[in-house]
Specification:
The relative contact order is 0.14. An eight-stranded mixed beta sheet has the order 4-3-5-10-6-9-7-8. It has a two-stranded antiparallel ribbon with strand order 1-2. The chain is built from eleven helices and ten strands. It is elongated. By secondary structure, the chain is α/β, with parallel strands linked by helices.
Amino acid sequence: MARLNYHHLYYFWRVATEGNLTRVSNALHVSQSALSSQIRQFEDSAGTQLFDRRGRKLVLTETGRRVLAYANDIFAKGEELESLLQQGIEPGSQLLNIGMLSTLSRNFIEGFIGPLLADRQARFSLEARSLDGLLDGLTRHQLDVALTNSSVQGNESQVWQSQLLARQPVAIVGPPGARPVTPFPEGYADKRWVLPKARSEVRAGFDGFCTVWQYEPQIQAEADDMAMLRLLARDSGALAVLPTVVVRDEILQGTLVEYMVLPNVFGNFYAVTIRRSFVPQVLQQLLARFAPAAE
């Protein structure tokens, strides 16, 4: 391969990141045909196909995804170099793109980004997506990290890396003054419940707990959104099953009371990344806070 043409690489990077030829051509003030021609020249010089052309849609090949990872690193370093040349100093931070599962606890997310909020030079963006949207954003290198409540397994074409950030205890919570005077399950015979949907780990743990005690809950509402469950727990008067971090503020204010912690049931929170040659230092520092201590 001849010397790398960074002009061609830049065009490839913009299209691969944006995912839309029209938007990129408008942003760069070049015609779509010229932009497409530049990318084809880049593919020809590299001797490999970087996009699958499906009608008007461009989809990255496996090689294209690997090239995009390098392009992200190259242009991130280019921004640092530009800052150094213009300001005479290296930038104090890089933009960190954080994806979060749209149903995840906002209290947990706030705790995760706490160090960034305390750093006046930190720059970061938050974007809520579905799990598929998060994985797509990581693959396209639109996101540096994705926060979820379930581990993600890799496959032959993609190496996902899931780091367990926290295991939060799960509790039965309810309105103050209504705590049952007798233990579970007798004191809970006539209680109404708002619960996570059946496919969640928290709900599976609660269902298993009920099975052991031969208890059938009277379910009033179900939701997969932690923010909605938080509101239902606060306003419905029913009992709720949640990781305690979700209703931390309500417990501190006394609007909700923790009735009991469910044994061996946890709400798990994960950070998902993909293997790449360059990992922003600020992300390394964030994840290091949750790494297990060496024995």
